[in-house]
Structures are given as structure tokens and as C-alpha cells.
Amino acid sequence: MGFFDKLKSAFTKTATSLAHEIQRIVTRSPKLTAQSVEELEAALLAADLGLPMTQQILAAVRKAFETQGKSGLDFVDIAIAEVERSLGGMNPDLTARPDGVTVVSMVGVNGTGKTTTCAKLAKRMAERGEPALLAACDTFRAAAIEQLQLWGSRLEIPVIAGAYQADPAAVAHDAVVAAQARNARWLFIDTAGRLHTKHNLMQELQKVHRVVDRKLPGAPHEVLLVLDGSTGMNAMVQAREFHKAVKLTGLVITKLDGTSKGGAVVAIQRELGIPVKFIGVGEQADDLQAFNARAFAEELFTAKDCTRIPDGCMTPDARFMGQALGLARRAYGRTSPNPMVGAVLVREGQVIGRGWHHRAGLPHAEVEALADAARRGHPVAGATIYVTLEPCCTQGRTPPCTEALIRAGVSRVVVAAVDPNPRHAGHGLELLRRAGMTVESGVLEAESLRLNEAFNHWIVHRTPWVTAKSAMTLDGKIATASGESKWITGPESRAQAHRLRLGADAVLVGVETVLADDPGLTVRSQPGFRAPARLPLKRRIILDTRARTPLGCRLVCDEARASTMVVVGASADPERVAALRERVTVVQAPERDHRIDLNWLLPELGRLGVVSLLVEGGGTVLAALFEAGWVHRTAFFYAPRILGGDASRRAVAGQGFRSLAEAPTLSEVESRRFGDDLFITARVVVPPRP
After folding, report:
1. Cross-strand partners of 223
2. 443/325 Cα distance (integer angstroms)
3. 70 CB contacts (<8 Å, ≥6 apart)?
4. Phi, psi at 293, each rounded to 5°
5. Per-residue DSSP letters for 62-125?
6. 645: CB partners within 8 A, 6+ apart
7. pLDDT per residue as tens digits for the range 50-66
8. Contact partners, residue 240, CB within 8 Å, separation at least 6
């Protein structure tokens, strides 16, 4: 069987499921409806494509539908093209250094096929006429050393090994020395995949890399993470952890078999930006091949005969949970301080009720779904409910949802994520189990956690989830030296900026931004974005140490001024403070280095119920928040312009970090085009303080 035949076999279940679901959805109606979009989203998420890739595909579908209608629209072709575009464009193979040995560190958890992959890659290079060595640095498992030596013997590849429980870094050092002495072109290092704790494992890998770098500056030149393709989104969790610790340069996906969800490969590359270098679909030495994005995308979505695919081939739990997530997103920007939650009631494979939490104080998603089933005349006893968050078990503004589910006679509860509140986590599920229900959790958990990342942070830390937003030129400038900034980015980016405001509880700027731009900071309809009617006012916050906010500015004088809060310093002029206080809310904060003390302000905003905070500048404010370690996510828009100049204003100003080690890094990086602009969002990883 050829490689691509094996690839086709590996994806039989995923492709069959997707092809069947897409055909079922798009042939039901000549129109692209909200329900069909939700179901397409659920199908893509169920294949572990991840939320960013799913949204990219759906955006392309909507755009194609607007230009040509549904007639002749091939959803599968669109999905294949988007996946190929996301995965392609990068060199999938390994390239040796012009001279000397190229060191490749192979990392990953035990059981992924890491040791075998080391041997296969060494054979691949040897067949190209580039001599290779293997280093058995997983000294914590005697079996791993023996396995690599066996592969080396079979493939005639030299193996450098130490004794069981020897220092892995010492073995790596000896392997580099041996590779240099033998004029090898490649050295593949097999590392440990499990120690007593994750922390110890990452520390050990970092030590190995430091030792190798000291012996051969710049090594390891490649760090490849080996992932088990059958583990779905668990592979994403592994990729995130290893990438934080040792900066991956590529992925190797192994163990793709007939039950694999190949979409996780797309989700990992889409989120982390790490190229997939190789893919393995068998145990033979030649079953590891360079990654081909087009072939991968085609086999992921294409089934031989969609007309004879059984309805049960897609996991029902994932499909219905995907629908529940779609319902939850309908309340984006309206539920704070509560999370967004959706629920779907299913009986005998049919949806009998849907619901979502509309806003704080109104019924929760589970109760809405029960009420929807009652309105439709469907009995609920014996049904399964899919909920994106663990049902509440305590009395708040509304009664406990666990009681409602027990009274209704629901027999099975499937949950995406457990309640993040440490005081309640798991308690609701335990109550339901005691009532005799079957309870399962973790279905599309990653998507649920991302949906409510702000709430999940606030409920644990009681400080806002802070997103730093800026619109800038490609060289990082937000305005000319004279202050001109309207408009650096295009209308599509400005529409997205209003979507970001919609999702935040409060928008914060510095007084310099108020003086320069006189912003409104409200959520307004834009071309391509329609602001919801009857939207609760978002809190608008000005950092103004000296109380310089003009009394005639929009934030102080417009119809929404009741939502404006000016944060002044303890040393602000009392008369200016009094004048502002007559018009808006004024909070007097302690100062630190003649500026508002952010370490006092952020907890205070959390106490006031600000779950998510969108910071729109300027550069001095963003720099202060980054330097204090308060930023959790970036939302940066880049326009295809260059301003240049020392005097033009920077997106992140301040003095900057003194060293790279002190500077925050970004993870889970996602990019998207809005018109001609590039939007990049990522989670901020703050280095531990000494």
C-alpha cells in the first residue's frame, strides 16, 4: 500500500464523518441559514479542527455564498482550500547546515512513537547520503535505550547511549562529540517523555538543550515534537506545554489510523504556527514521509461515497456539543459577570430543545432548553442534555440548574467544561450522579474554555482578563509625530475592533489618547458589523493621574457619560477632580512612580465586577500594563503601511524590557485578514519574577 493510500485509510473515519455531515447540512435548504452555519460549525469542531480554523472556513463559506449563492457552491472544496492555505507555505522537510553536524532534538510524551520516529528520520537522512547518529537520552527508561539500539542495529545507524539512569545531558554531550568526530551530518536526540512531574520533564529538556548549545553553539537546530494523531485535542495541550518550554520548530504526527481525528493537526498548526514536518501512518521505516498540505486536506474532507455513509459515524456527543457552543456564542458581550453557556436537549438522536443564557439575572441555558422543549411539546424524561459548562448547584440570582434537571427527569448530562470556580468545581456533576444520572465531561472542552477565558480567569483571580488592543503600521507605529492616526487601518479592522468592544465589560484608554483623539469608546454599527440593540452600557475608563481630562470631551459630555470613570492620582488638583466628579464617576487611586498604581487599580476593577478589560492605548498605557504583567491577550491590527521616524508614536512605548528573559512571550498565536490588514491575537506568557 502506497503512502497516500495509507493516509487515505488513516482518515477514513474523519473524512467519512465530515463528508456525510456537510452533505446532510447543505442539501437540506437552498439558503445558508443560522442553523446550517451552526451545524457546519459543530461538524468541523467535532473533527477537532479547532475554533480558529473552523471560523476561517465558515468565513470563507459566507463570503462565497454572498458572491455566488448556494447554487454551485462546493463547501468541501472551500474547506480543503482553507486548510491547505493554513498548513501550506512552509518547508516541510529538514535541511542540513552547510557544514558540521545538524542536531535535532526529538521531544514528546511517552507512547507517541518518539523513539521510532528518531530512527526513521535517521534512516531518511542516511538514504540521502547524509550520515546520521542517534542519541539515546531517554535514560529514565531502559526499554527506550534498548529500543533505539535495536532500531540502530536494524537500520545500520550508530547509537550513542549511556547506562540506565545516566545523566541525559551528559549522553547528549557525548553524542555531539561523537557526531563531530565521525563527520556526521545529523544527530537525532531521543529525549525523555515522562518524569515525576511535568515541571521536572521540561527542566530536564532545557538542561539537555543548554549542554548541547555549549558544546555546539546554536544547537539543537531543530526541536521536533512527536504527537500521537489519535489523541485529538489532547495533542493540542501537549503542543502548548512543550512549545512554552523548548520552542518547537516542527511537528511530527504519528499513529494516524482509522479512528484518528486528523483535524487536530490543523488546529495545532493554526494556533501555534508550528509547521508539520512529517506524518506517519504505519510501523515500517518508510512509513514516515514529508508532510503534504494539499494531500492531507483532501483526505481529511473527502469520502469515497457520501450517499452510503451511516448516520452514526460522527460522534453524536461532539456534534450536539458543537451546537451548544454555537448557541452560547449568541450571547457574546451580554452575559457578564456570568459566562456564556449553551445547552441542547436530545432524545433518541433528535434535538427537542435548545437554550442559551441571555444575560445575568435571566434563566440559565439548561432552564431555557427545558422550557424550549416544553413549548414544542416534547417530553424531557430520559433525554440527554449537552451543556457547555457544568450546571450550577447553588442559589444565586436564579435557582440551581441541577435541581431543574433532576425534576425534569433528564437521564444523561454531557458537559464540555467543569465549573472553574474552585468552590463549586465538580460539585454540580456529583449531585447529578447521586441523583442517578449518567454524567460525562470534557467534550469539546478546549473550545468551551477559550469561549469563556475571561470569566474563567476572573472567577479564580478576581481581576479582569486584560486584552491589549492596538492598530498600527507594519513597523509598529500608531500615529505620526504630529498625532495623525485616522485611519491607519481599514474599515474591516475597525468593525472587528467594535466586536472586541462588544465582548468587553470595560474599555480603557490613557488621557493622552483622550486629548489627541477625543474617542467615544462605545459599541457602534460599522460596515460589516451590526451593533446589538439594547446593549448594556460598557464602562469607559480614563487613566488620568493629573485630572487633565477636558470637561468638554465626548467621554464626559455624551449621552453615555454615566458609564465613564476617570481614575485620577492622589496628587491630582482638587478643583479639577471636583469639576469632573460633577459630570462622571471619579476614582482617586494611589500613585506609583507618579502614575496610577496598576497593582491597586486592577484588583479594584475586578471587585467592581469588570470581568474583561479592553485596553485601547495609547502606547504609554500599554507599556505600563505589559511591564506590570497585567496583559493576558494581545489584539493587534497591522496595516500595510510604513511610517518610520523616531518621533512617530509607538504602539507600545515606555523604556522597554532590559533583557529578552524579562520580556513576555506570546503563545497560541492566531492570525486573520481583515481587508488589507493583518489581525494577530495571542495569549501573553509573562516570565516568572525572580
Report:
1. 105
2. 11
3. 26, 30, 31, 32
4. -60, -40
5. HHHHHHH-STT--HHHHHHHHHHHHH-SS--S----SSSPEEEEEE--TTSSHHHHHHHHHHHH
6. 477, 480, 481
7. 777 888 888 888 777 77
8. 272, 667, 668
C-alpha to C-alpha distance for 254 and 94, rounded to whole angstroms:
17
At 82, which amino acid appears? E
pTM: 0.60
Beta-carbon count within 10 A of 105 CB = 27
Burial degree of 216 (CB within 10 A; 0-12, 13-18, 19+): buried
pLDDT tens sequence across 243-268: 888 888 888 888 654 334 456 777 77
CA distances from 391 to 346, 386, 442, 444 (A): 17, 10, 14, 16
Backbone angles phi, psi at 358, to 5 degrees: -85, -45
Residue showing cell 558544546: 215
Closest CA to 10 of 314, 287, 311, 307: 287
Q: Which three cell numbers stand for residue 684?
A: 501573553
- Give the residue numbers annotated as catalytic, written as ranges: 366
At 535 the three-state DSSP class reads coil
Q: Distance (Å, rounded) from C-alpha 254 to C-alpha 244?
A: 22
Q: For residues 139 and 155, is the Cβ–Cβ distance under 8 A?
A: no
pLDDT confidence of residue 63: 79
Identify the weakest region by mean pLDDT among 29-43, 84-98, 295-309, 374-388.
295-309
Interatomic CA distance for residues 196 and 182, integer angstroms: 36
Find the angle CA(213)-CA(217)-CA(220) to the nearest 5 degrees: 50
Q: Is the model more confident about 398 or about 451?
A: 451
* Rounded Cα–Cα distance for residues 413 and 382 (Å): 11
Report the alpha-carbon angle 493-86-469, nearest 5.
Answer: 30
